[in-house]
Fold:
Amino acid sequence: MADNGTATITLTLDGTNQSASLKLRAGTIGPSVADIRSLYNELGIFTFDPGYGGTAACESKITYIDGDAGVLLYRGYPIEQLAEHSTFLEVAHLLLNGELPNAAEKRLFEHGVLRHTMLHEQIRSFFNGFRRDAHPMAVLCGVVGAMSAFYHDSLDINDPEHRRISAFRLIAKVPTIAAWAFKYSIGQPFVYPRNDLGYAENLLYMMHAVPTEEYRVSPVLARALDLILILHADHEQNASTSTVRLAGSTGANPFACIAAGIASLWGPAHGGANEAVLKMLAEIGHAEQIPDFIRKVKDRNSSVRLMGFGHRVYKNYDPRAKIMQRTCHEVLGELGIKDDPLLDLAVELERVALHDEYFVSRKLYPNVDFYSGIILKAMGFPTSMFTALFAVARTVGWISQWKEMVEDPSQRIGRPRQLYTGAPRRDYLPLSARG
Ligand code: SDX
Structure:
């Protein structure tokens, strides 16, 4: 990053003016940052930013979002162009290595991923420890974390070759774990991955094939899933990526870090929103109920939120939501679904919200989760698998961000400070004196 001068901050503390000079640093695009690392030593105060809404936690070259303009770039390439021209594995190479692969690199990368989709046979036993009705995200989190109990040969995070092998193992095996979590939940036998299938194709195959008959994956659904994976691959320092970076900053192994990211993604305010959108649409039921639902959302005393709407960074349309809505119509059309009541309800809900002062004044627009669940449901995925599919895609972003952090010579263990408002020092109170 280019240095571009210093900013002098002057504070009046206890009646006296005290100044500190902060180094200003400019990125390639987007807001500059003021390096506040010297602030405490110079002025004895911390900055206070719960939720880190105004804090750059790291320097990164991977993804850039302009929330006001609704722009999303993966290594500089607009998401719209990657969605139209690229594939998920090509995007995985781009996020992980910084450049789109040439023909030879593409073949090698694809071969490396598609030939490592099988799990160690002992890992199957982990599944039997779960209840059949366990949420797939609980299974995914547990089994991915357990991978560190198997792959001792690639746990030295300071060894570039171990980092490379771990990245391949995670990108290649998380889809198998996700598909097996689904099969386990419906009591069907696990379906092994096939080396002759593409990445998204294999995931659909492992999800829907049964040993009793031939199963051919629809090329339309495989392309649609590949596109959905591209849209979900990375997104700057979102909550789950920040979780992975914080876990990784302690030197924890990559499997444990990705398991932490899966746990964080599961929340309904984050990756769990796609599942929550479907539940919300089911609760609304019909377009006539929309005004009543919007009233609940606007009622400060209710905790009802319009799921799939709003974003910490996007104060404009999430570009992924636009692509997702278009894909919705294409997939439903390809599936011969003339009108999907869920999609019709979602489109009407979006129309009402985008004309309502409450949402307009707060710059609340549809985000990536608003339409994704409708497509996934139409493609035959159960609601409980939506966030697991998000995790499959985001594993590429998480491991790319983890790799960037581990390879950053300036990275330190993450250790935020706090504003303490608890009890001042006091002496122990014996039981008899406690009233
Ligand atoms: C993802 O960070 C990422 O990049 C995440 C993600 C990724 O790819 O990694 O993009 C994926 O997580 C998308 C977001 C999915 N979550 C949802 O759709 C859940 C619904 N949305 C919200 O809960 C909310 O919008 C968040 C969590 C997404 C953002 O929360 P913020 O930035 O903390 O928003 P806020 O609470 O500061 O909201 C500002 C105002 C508040 O009202 P006031 O107090 O000013 O009156 O907007 C309101 C909020 O109450 N608001 C909503 C709302 N989202 C914000 N009101 C109703 N419905 C909503 N969805």
Summary: The longest strand covers residues 2-13. The chain is about 50% helix and 10% strand. The CA atoms of residues 209 and 215 lie 5 Å apart. Residues 160-185 form the longest helix (26 residues).
